[in-house]
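Notebook entry, structure prediction.
Reason for the run: the old model in the group folder had no record of what sequence produced it. Starting over properly, with the input documented here first.
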Amino acid sequence: MSTTEKNPYHLFNKLIWSNWKNQAVICIKVEELSQMNGITFFELIPDSELLDADAETLYPIDSDDVLDMFLPNAHVKFVVHDIYMDDLDD
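New structure, fully documented this time:
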């Protein structure tokens, strides 16, 4: 019996960003998730006000740093977990 696991992460994009802005998200926490094949993956967490480690950073949703996350980069990917996508259909 074969089981297929669905990847719970989505690449951060302008639609996610726009929906978060419409939902009044103020800031985004960036947390290093993993490294694989020379690519570092960072998870984006909306409206998280707590920093758990020195490697985590909070950015205002309208900051240039967040807008730069849309730029292609072969070595860095910004991803959003399904749990932060649930409200996007509202």
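Summary: The first strand starts at residue 9 and ends at 11.
The old model has been moved to the deprecated folder.
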